[in-house]
Fold these 4 entries.
Entry 1:
Amino acid sequence: MLKVGVLGAGHLGKIHLRLLNESEKYELVGFYDPDAINGHKVSAEFGYSYFENINTLIDSVEVVDIVTPTLSHYECAKKAIEKGKHIFIEKPITNTLEEAEDLILLSRKYGVKGQVGHVERFNPAFTAVKDNIQNPMFIETHRLAEFNPRGTDVPVVLDLMIHDIDAILSVVASEVKSITASGVSVISNSPDIANARIEFANGCVANLTASRISLKSMRKSRFFQKDAYISVDFLEKKVEVVKMKDAPEKPGDFDMILQNAEGVKKQIYFENPEVSDNNAILDELETFADAINNNSVPVVTLEQGTNALRVALQIIQSF
């Protein structure tokens, strides 16, 4: 079991603490929170060991789980890496691109592994269909949430849209060619609604919409590619895969056949894979333990987290 410590005991930090405490791959040593009142309260309520000194906690573990506000990600990660500790760091990886790139260099220098908490990569709906997504040429995503003051310290792009940016970058094997975007601040000091159009060098186009002042929640992505349409509902954990193949010479009575203007006939059929239930946060934490123990590449590397941040910041700059 890997000895792990958590930095940050807010809403998400408490979830990480609970899951790490339950995990058979980690030994939870304790946690640090700069708010001593909150730290002692969480310790008293759940029984986790509270460390009043961040360095003492880092020195006591092999893995540091960083679940602090984004503005402090870099300093926390830097402290841990320079002490030779592996880091799991929540998304977005850092506040600036320069900070993220420096963490990559530091991790290489000190020979430690890092993983970024892009949890939607572990969403069972996405993992169920990811292998079906082959060379998509048009992608449309909608990520809508009801207003919650938590997270409004950053633009909606870094709060919500970055999930979809990372997922898209993981399935489109091409460089970003251009980005156009618009954002509107409604209740926060930073944009609450954003729309972005990402064009890739291979011709793929992704249209992303994110809002944190919606009346209802929605987390859907649709992938269009040759002879297939794939829909992923990250919220409901449902998938829909619609494919086409050459129509048989003698279609059955219930076969769905389409014919284009050139007379080519295609048969539509459904191929919906089973979606297994899981705890995505636990999965991402435990696959990081596997990467450390097996000396393998983490599922979401620091480099991938940096690429998602780079695109997110380009979107913000396009407003």
Note: The chain has a mean pLDDT of 93.
Entry 2:
Amino acid sequence: MKIPVLNIKQFQSSKEVHQVYVNSFANHIKINKHLTSTPHSHNFYLCVIFTKGSGVHEIDFKSYSISPGKVFFLKPGQTHFWKFKTPPNGFIFFHSKEFYEMYYLTHQLSNFPFYYSYQNPPVLELTDSLKGIENKFRELLQEYHETQAFRNLKMVNSINDIYIILTRAYTSTLNLADYASVNYLKILEQLEQYIEEYYHQEKLPKYYAGLLNITTKHLNRVTKETLNKTTHQLIAERVILEAKRLIVHSQNPLARIAETLGFEDYAYFSRYFKKKTGTSPIDFKKSYHKK
């Protein structure tokens, strides 16, 4: 089994609307159960707010509780699925990178902290501000179902407004005076892009420092000051994440998975995996399927 990558077109409810989708969460789950009932990833950006319900949201093997006031953000490629204990509701929207950035030439989705780095938590818990933001989602849903002039532009502006409000809540506990420099953040963003592209074959910090035209020492300084992690840790985390995805969601033998991830043999891969996770690939697979 290979984990499905869902395309935004699979959810389109209107032929006139492209690269964006908006719905109440209860209706979304009801009409798309055949797509969302098993672990999957997307080729788009997703935001959902819960107003009712309880359960667990698993994102890349990390579990987050579902409750009213929780907001989740997903970037393209992240694997997730829902487990509900009580019936959920709220609002959900997703869109392509192009849909948003074609209207904001000087502002990118990666400027928002929840989409900036895979290291940033994909969840936000709202309290007093829930009602106000809920109305913003409701207005977006209403615009989505109407056919007035400049609908796409209005929807992008509404999405941007939601993202700004959520960013302020998301960063409310941060001391912005201590926040990393813009230059460091740009290096980190480029590093994550390079790791995503080359982690199968390149696992040494020196390689990525070369791509960035900086020294390995400086690259480690950037990752330590922005994330409190070494470059090697970031590379290893991406390798292990993909290993877990393949171990759980594919039918390939472990030796084939090791080869896919650029390891010379299974024994080396098994030692690497156990060192980073504390368990062997075989034991990880068994324990995951017992959940």
Note: The longest strand covers residues 80-95.
Entry 3:
Amino acid sequence: MDLRGMSRLEGRTALVTGGSRGIGRAIATRLAAEGATVAVHYGGNEEAAAKTVADIRGAGGEAFAIRADLRTPGAAGELAEGVCAEFRDGLDILVNNAGILNNAPVGEVTERAWDELFTINMKAPFFLVQALLPALRDDGRIINLSSVNARLATPTIIEYSMSKAALESMSRTLAAVLAPRRITVNAVAPGATETDMMAFVHAVPELKAMVDGLSVYNRMALPEEVASAVALLCSPDSALITGQVVDVSGGTWLGPPS
């Protein structure tokens, strides 16, 4: 993607958590394409983060990598401090994208797995927002990556679905709290998306056909398509869109493809 010629976010600053791979990488790349300077957060894969930053810079954008292990106590505050040190004039856009998924039947979910998932998927976004509130500039944007599973009954990922439902609830409440500062807060809910997390689907043709068939378009979404929705919500065009969940699942479970 050529990062020149698009300027809706010119002069804006952005932090994308989990921005080195998958949907996060696509979001970081798209926001840079729109003119934002992007902090690409990563938890452990330094090589992937460096490649994302290099690709953005190579295409004419501005980005830098920043590490924080969101599983550890105080990590959200440390990440906020690091971002504020780079963006001394403030932050305009926060995209809470980092998340993990556990596959386990209800009877096999462990407390340890539960705690780790909720820490990364829900606790970290909340305390990151809290820590960044003084730095977030008026007319800013907060986008939380939810999932279509927040409203579906999927027994093998119950704690994941619950964490995303909590994230949507947080988005609505923060939208009301931050309205006086004209900071919009929304969630974006993808369905099955072509990322590393879903790579196992391709190994089983029957499973791939089933997952594709969840969408009325009979295919999984591309990370870039999710990033397009995020970019819209980050733009000036979305000034009156707040407290919403934007479904980017290709019509999951609306019915069979026509």
Note: Residues 57 and 63 are 7 Å apart (CA to CA).
Entry 4:
Amino acid sequence: MFSLHERLQADSLPVSDLGLCRVLLMNNRVWPWLILVPRRAGAVEIHRLSAADQTALMAEIAAASRVVERLFAPDKLNVGALGNMVPQLHVHVIGRTRGDPAWPGPVWGSGHAESYTAEEGAALAARLAQALAEDADSLRRSETA
């Protein structure tokens, strides 16, 4: 049975569930930052997922990337599955801009963090959920056209 690692739960806000992944918003307003967590018990590494889940994960990473790009217009997207602190498989999709406080270095360990207010976080999570749903609808329409 899938359960979210306590650190991911403590550091993020829920956005939505896709076909495979739970989508979370990192509670750090410095960067637009989504986390995708495959809802598979015991998942630790991408290559250990079934072939179908690997394909679904890549499609969902692409969807999250499109949404971050469309809503925030970053200069670069950073996508990574590190797992050094949290062993549960999760993938970060982070919008970076040349003027951000950690540029060009990594966001991890940069010392830059600022939580969303409850209202701000809820509103952004809802906006992201809507954008992910619109992206999925757009893909379905293009596939049937």
Note: The longest strand covers residues 12-17.
